[in-house]
Amino acid sequence: MHRMIPTDLWGLTMRVLGVNGWPGASHDGAACLVVDGEVIALAEEERFTRNKHAYGEAPLNAAAHCLAEGGLTLDDIDVVAHGWDMPKLFADRGLDWFADDAETLEHLLPKALFPRTRDPRLTFVDHHVAHAASAYYLSGRDRGAILVLDGQGEDVSTTLAVGIDGEIKTLRSFTPGWSLGYFYAAVCEYAGLGSDAAGKMMGLASYGTPQDLSFGGALDFTDDGFTIGVVPPDLRSTGSTDEETATIRLWLEHLEKALPEAPNRSTRRFDPRVGRYTRVTDRDPFEYRDIAATAQAALERAVMTLVRTLLKESGETTLLVAGGVGFNATLNGKLMRMPEVRDLFVQPLAGDQGVSLGAAVRVAAEEGDRIRPMRGSVAWGPQWTPDEIRRVLEASGTAYTEPADIAAATADVLAGGGVAGWFQGRAEGGPRALGHRSMVAVPNPEGTRDRVNVRIKDREAWRPFAPSMQEEAAETLIGTTTPLPYMIVTTPVTDAGAAAMPAVVHSDRTTRPQTVSAEVDPLYHRLIGRVGEHTGTAVVLNTSFNGRDEPVVCSPRDALATFHRLPMDALALGPFLVRRPGGAVGEAGA
């Protein structure tokens, strides 16, 4: 089921392959194919290699998927656009970029795997420009203020910009030493969660009470932003192409002096249950909830001040957000409710997987293509036909049925207290499962949260879940009719919402909703509606279909392996339904 791109007879078709990742020195490798301004395919390398975040991996499988989806080879590609300006990254640190374009392409996309008779043009796109492009061009807005926040790009960690009539202009930026992303990562590490566990700490923060937002004088909040006192703004690492390790080390040294709690030391141990190393801490990270709450409040204060400055300097009221800090849904909810912000778009591929998309659309726009905006879905990944899925099922010896209506049959399982895997259509990009690679349940009673968190996904009991609801039910449950298709902002819940879906209401009485449109995702919309026929409310608990410390499932084989390993009740695999022999539904109330 691959899309065939028309042959370019007149030289008018522009085909751009965006990539992120580098062998041995990167994270969140991904590839994206954009043809004439339209996103044709996007995939993350971790989904294929099953190595979460794809540390040190070039996007080989992701690029192969994108080319196959378009029915293309590398000979058909006009430009390969990388979401980092690698020569600049090296030059800023007094290092020589070791490769010419041909050598670089061979490292990224070796001819042994990507046969070609010629090399496409290679373009390096500044990292924050790629992030900004992913938010601006895909938002569908002609103009808006752009905020990019992450650990760092080549030489900046925060960018304030404006997009007008297809052009992006940087207004101001902050150096890597003053990275809010690294500040938050350092507090994550201090609490024993790991520096790459920002999502966990965001969830933990709602259980705590903020204390000293300056963290012992390290953060100073100014009228137009912030300053950081523990890291030199001009910090440059030696022997490294980024300042992450040095910056986090300086933060940890300061936190150990400034905070009454000692750092939560951790080690990595092999867990035979999941066949991989997991983090083991000296203390329960829940004991660090006040520190988490303080970091979250400090982040929000700094960013909201930056946003006011950005909107004032740009004259805009539309805010477009990208960069890894953009995954902080609690922060995004606060931004959405700022009176100065009349319109908010947060790129759902806010992290570095999104710069493959941003680099591609940036180049396409510069070449004159009109970029087609996102329309409520990031399902650009691999898919399998019913016949292909059937062959996988039969080869595995797994018993299955083919109900007349897979949505109705799955809804019956959920209404009976079951938890089901939901594997349908093209895989999504980004860390959120949005109804194509999901684990779903009825969000009532509240005990469902503990069952899915602790017994099925083997994660901390305080981790929150999110709801997928028919967009028609959103006003009743969360008090808004604004489409929220990407599960990337938090909203308060109504009294009716708190009563109908307690398993997805967090301790601060907010939730991170996905509103589902019948036009964008008719099958998932129908599943939720069928559940509503049983429960009276068209909403389900939706979490990513994966086990602890694993990427979201990609293929039917991934889905089957995860289903057989975890105590779920059923798996809707395309049009087929797999039930666990004997059922686990009876455990729901245990």
From TrEMBL:
<feature type="domain" description="Carbamoyltransferase">
    <location>
        <begin position="120"/>
        <end position="361"/>
    </location>
</feature>
<dbReference type="InterPro" id="IPR038152">
    <property type="entry name" value="Carbam_trans_C_sf"/>
</dbReference>
<protein>
    <submittedName>
        <fullName>Carbamoyltransferase</fullName>
    </submittedName>
</protein>
<dbReference type="Pfam" id="PF02543">
    <property type="entry name" value="Carbam_trans_N"/>
</dbReference>
<dbReference type="InterPro" id="IPR043129">
    <property type="entry name" value="ATPase_NBD"/>
</dbReference>
<dbReference type="InterPro" id="IPR003696">
    <property type="entry name" value="Carbtransf_dom"/>
</dbReference>
<feature type="domain" description="Carbamoyltransferase C-terminal">
    <location>
        <begin position="411"/>
        <end position="580"/>
    </location>
</feature>
<dbReference type="InterPro" id="IPR031730">
    <property type="entry name" value="Carbam_trans_C"/>
</dbReference>
<dbReference type="Pfam" id="PF16861">
    <property type="entry name" value="Carbam_trans_C"/>
</dbReference>
<feature type="domain" description="Carbamoyltransferase">
    <location>
        <begin position="26"/>
        <end position="85"/>
    </location>
</feature>
<comment type="similarity">
    <text>Belongs to the NodU/CmcH family.</text>
</comment>
<dbReference type="InterPro" id="IPR051338">
    <property type="entry name" value="NodU/CmcH_Carbamoyltrnsfr"/>
</dbReference>
<dbReference type="GO" id="GO:0003824">
    <property type="term" value="F:catalytic activity"/>
</dbReference>
